[in-house]
Design brief:
- This protein has helices at about 15-20, 40-60, 75-85, 100-110, 120-130, 160-165, 200-210, 235-245, 255-265, 275-290, 310-320, 340-345, 350-355, 445-455, 490-500, 525-535; strands at about 25-30, 35-40, 65-70, 90-95, 115, 135-140, 155, 180-185, 195-200, 220-225, 245-250, 270-275, 300, 320-325, 335, 365-370, 385-390, 415-420, 430-435, 440, 445, 460-470, 475-485, 510-515.
- It is α/β, with parallel strands linked by helices and about 550 residues long.
- α5 links the parallel β5 and β6.
- The longest helix has 17 residues, at about 40-60.
- The protein binds adenosine monophosphate.
- Adenosine monophosphate binds near residues 418 and 522.
Length: about 550
């Protein structure tokens, strides 16, 4: 017997309608790409999103068509997302930090029909446009006065594109499982693969994200997503914030410590989210200037492991609660969040910190398990580590155009490619990417754990550990360090700092100091590049 409840399709444009009706005056503030800080609100965003939908429909865009965006976090970008999705077309976020060849590959693979882009990327768009045969319309996210003078076919300023479109345009109705957003993974091996979110998965994911023990979003919050919309849906914030009526502050192109701090202060932001490298810059800026962030309550850190020292500085020095989160593009992206369960909250702060350094526990809607190489499930004892597999309504069941099938098994589990432990309380700890783990004498060494401890040394800004071939042990860890500006440390000092903090046999065989550690387009340490550069480093522990 079926239930007698309504089939109310979970379509994302319902979110912006809800925000317009019940939180219409709530602001969406943007540091615009043109320069000034501009202000709009959910009522306006919803009206203009309908105009985008109408303008696209007039252009012939229809159900299932891919419309690419190459843009910073701005109100216009949000309007474009909702407008595109509201006619059943698919917003496809392109990551401008990728190489032009990769962007061309991805846009062609997706067969994008329209490209919305910020003026920042005008030259890039001009360069790649001749290689993008499927794109028939280029919409520059600006007004006529700022339209760049570039050679691109069918170029129009966004404000002109929507000028006479209907703000009362009726959204389309379609199945909630319809594709809504497309984002390619930043995979370091092989070609990037497309993850196609549905309306249903985006809405369920926003519900999941907003929960009190996840991001805990409220109408009273003012949220600044530093994490870009082109990095896995801005971690749900473009949906979850309007869902509850939280004010949004969009940082545009300026993501340095100084600019982010200015906006956080001026707009009295209460919650923000970004990868650790962004927070590293912000904390250095706060340290240098002596500024504080009195309104800030929570900072979400994810994308890479948040080091203990970073969590401690935010919490102890600035009184800001850290929520350490883990996820991936294939998971929409949230998988776990490090909020405190009652037994953990009851612990002394030093012990709580141990839990905050873990990647968190899964909210309802994310199933996870760890398995060994024979696919046998491993115990949830906080010690055994194995490949992390996940399932849920906001987890991919395949990649766009049927690629990468090996990551999905017959029972619907997705292999994350991460190696992790699960503890009896449900907290998960990532020990490594499967391909980065160091195998020494048949045992695994967690590079992430050594890195996290190394950055606790007062002179260390960033640290990376890679495996280097060793005749006796197969591989041994090499620690690569960037010193904080104006600071220095010796190899012996760093190793001395690690002594007693990590197992003896995890101790790096050598320490190298570099000016910079390379990062991927989504802010992760590029271990492959480091292995290419330092993989042949001669360890002092190898006899000549
Ligand atoms: P992406 O799809 O670009 O978001 O990358 C997802 C990958 O980033 C995950 O599979 C992890 O390897 C890594 N990652 C994300 N969050 C964390 C975290 N909090 N700690 C460690 N690694 C993380």
């Amino acid at each position: 017997m079926l239930g007698l409840m309504q089939d109310w399709p979970l379509l994302v444009h319902k979110i912006i309608d809800h925000a317009a009706l019940y939180h219409g005056e709530r602001e969406v503030v943007t540091r615009s790409v043109e320069g000034p800080v501009v202000r709009t609100n959910y009522a306006q965003v919803a009206r203009r999103a309908r105009k985008v939908a109408h303008a696209l429909e007039r252009h012939g865009i229809t159900l299932g068509d891919r419309c690419a965006t190459l843009g910073w976090n701005t109100a216009r970008h949000i309007e474009a997302w909702y407008g595109i999705a509201g006619i059943g077309a698919i917003y496809h976020t392109l990551n401008p930090r990728l190489f032009p060849d990769q962007i061309v590959y991805i846009a062609n693979h997706a067969e994008d029909k329209v490209l919305f882009f910020d003026i920042t990327f005008a030259k890039l768009v001009e360069e790649i446009a001749p290689r993008l045969p499927s794109i028939g319309l280029y919409v520059c996210l600006t007004d006529a006065a700022h339209l760049p003078d570039i050679e691109v076919p069918n170029l129009v300023a966004y404000e002109d594109f929507i000028a006479d479109a209907d703000p009362g345009f009726e959204w389309k109705e379609f199945d909630e499982r319809t594709g809504c957003g497309l984002c390619y993974t930043s995979g370091t091996t092989g070609n990037p693969k497309g993850v196609l979110y549905s309306h249903r998965s985006n809405i369920l994911h926003a519900f999941i994200a907003g929960q009190a023990d996840a991001m805990g979003l409220r109408a009273c919050d003012t949220i600044l997503p530093v994490v870009p919309m082109f990095h896995a849906n801005a971690w749900a914030l473009a949906f979850a914030a309007p869902m509850v009526g939280a004010k949004l502050v969009m940082p545009g192109p300026k993501l340095d410590g100084d600019s982010v701090c200015d906006l956080l202060t001026a707009e009295r932001v209460t919650m923000t989210a970004a990868v650790p490298t962004v927070w590293l810059a912000l904390l250095q800026y706060l340290e240098k200037t002596g500024k504080t962030l009195p309104d800030m309550k929570r900072v979400l850190i994810g994308g890479s492991a948040a080091p203990r020292s970073m969590i401690e500085t935010f919490e102890r020095k600035y009184g800001i609660t850290v929520v350490h989160a883990w996820g991936m593009t294939e998971m929409s992206p949230l998988g776990t969040l490090g909020t405190m369960k009652p037994n953990v909250e009851a612990l002394p702060y030093e012990r709580q910190l141990d839990y905050k350094c873990k990647q968190g526990h899964p909210p309802f809607g994310v199933e996870m398990k760890i398995v060994d190489d024979e696919e046998k499930e491993l115990p949830r004892d906080g010690k055994a580590f194995g490949r992390l597999k996940v399932r849920g309504p906001a987890v991919a069941k395949g990649y766009f155009r049927g690629e990468g099938t090996g990551a999905f098994d017959a029972e619907g589990w997705f292999d994350t490619g991460d190696v992790a432990t699960l503890d009896p309380d449900g907290y998960m700890t990532i020990t490594d990417r499967a391909k980065d783990v160091i195998k020494s004498g048949g045992e695994w060494i967690s590079t992430i754990e050594i890195e996290n401890i190394a950055v606790g040394h007062p002179a260390v800004a960033e640290a990376a550990v890679i495996g280097v071939a060793h005749p006796k042990w197969d591989e041994r860890p090499l620690l690569i360090v960037v010193a904080k500006p104006g600071q220095a440390a010796t190899r012996e000092e760093i190793l001395g700092y690690l002594t007693g903090r990590i197992a003896k046999w995890w101790m790096p065989d050598d320490v190298l100091f570099v000016d910079e550690i390379p990062h991927t387009a989504t802010g992760k340490i590029q271990k492959m590049t480091l292995r290419e550069r330092f993989g042949k480093h001669k360890l002092p522990t190898v006899a000549a």
